[in-house]
Known about the structure:
The chain is mainly alpha-helical. It is built from five helices and no strands.
Amino acid sequence: MKRYTREMIVWFAIYSVTLIVSLNLLRSMEMGQPLKTMIALLPAVPIAGVLVSIMRVMRDSDELMQRLYFLATSFSALLTAFITFTYGFLENIGFPKFPTFLIMPMMFAFWGLSLFWFSKRYK
């Protein structure tokens, strides 16, 4: 687990640097749309690395942890889907658009909370 933790810390550090650099470049430089698009998407690359690391942690875990990860992932996905779907109805009556960049952090937050909740059953 320490290996995966270190790996994710490195990916998040790369993400932080990439995000700061890309935002500064986008604010300070005049550029065409293709280059602007590539620079805006740069922070997604290290996040893909984080996701791969998470998948490897899940794959390399024992059966009990895999079950807990499955339950937490399912609950997180379903709750996030329900919230964003339901909020869509509120947008129809004038509520502000839901920022899509919040979906992934929402899923991770629900995943962490539900993993804690489900793992309590096995202690």
